[in-house]
Amino acid sequence: MSDIPHQVAFTALLALTEVTRSIQAAQLRSDAFPRSFARWTRQEDQLLAALTEAPIDEELICRLLQRTHESLRRRRERRTGATRSLLAELPQSTLRVTPADVELLMKWNPEEIRDPFGWRFGTPLPVKVRASKTRTLRVVLARPEHPDGLLSSWQNAAQATWTDLAATVSRKEGAHRRGVLHHAPDVHQARQLALRTTVRRVTGEPARRGGIQEWTPGPSPDWHTALIADPERWSAASIRALDVATVILVLPDAQDAARHLASAAQNRCEPLLLGRTVKDWAQEQGVLVDRWCADRERVTETVSGWPNSHGLLARVDWDTLRVLPQTGELVCANAALLLRARVWLMLTQGVRTEMPASLSQRFAQLLGKNVGLGQLPLDAAHAAQQGYLDSRSPTVSLEERVWARVLLDSFYPKGADRGNVIQFQESGLKLSVGSTASVTYIGR
């Protein structure tokens, strides 16, 4: 292990600088320091803390933040003791931040991109939503892609699968004779609003008018397919009265969960709720399915992972990269963002993500070696640093110096030294360059 104190990586300093520059003072009071009275953001606090820890001369920090010495002094006094919490979640490197790095940050002025990343986090569901000729019950059993020994993994997979199906059957496109049904009573339409909010959060658009309905005893909707919300709330009489050809239930695969949890000694009797075990839960789920299948032909389908049938990209920001699941595809708005995101993932999650070969070769050539990224010997990395990061060199563009500096941190992760190149694990997450204009918010 290295005795060199780790510092915030250059790729994070770039992102923090970009956010900081986007916040300007409402009224300029100083031509020399135009941001002296601008609102402070968490990102600017992080940038100030990182450069102070480096340490970087305060005159350079003032020039980068465009604030006065007095502004910095007052802010440090207000944030005393907060440095650890501010910097803990940022990617760390043992490569020291230098005044030349700060000069690069001051010169860097890329075009602002509203949504730099989009995550395509799954595959379309194979579940059929069209009507059957006979009364049919489709039972969709959801499993996590990588079971981790926690019951919540199966419950989360079922919720993700149900939400994906709800977005599919209630969207404006396609046939309208299908939708989501939830059972009355629904006091103040609270459940209706929650379901519509869930669909809109996933698709980025409101559910179709009439696509989510409350069922009460009486005539059923003129649908051929109904996705059921909260199937345990339906009585046997309500189920018999529901006149829809195809009914879809989405449930956690309780039998699969019981098998996995029983294999781990510490989870053999893991309670679901007070007085109930996983085995009890699996038996109750079987009774529930039997009740729904009273006069219907049962078709059982099993799915795993987090589906994404609507095909929209999920919105991802820099902070989210440290917890992004290592599956699916991360679409980046341009090649520079892809490079920065790759190094960010390496330093926060310890994984090496797949990227297009053409880009890999291009970035490797920036460092003067035709080798795979992350395999460059440290002595060659030092030579590359001297050759490419010298701000006085007239032959190397600013963009190349910034990209090379970002890459160098991947050879100096937290815990590495000159004789120790950390081997990163390979990731199932793919990186690509494409349009991120159509993204949707999925929460954190």
UniProtKB/TrEMBL annotation:
This is Uncharacterized protein.
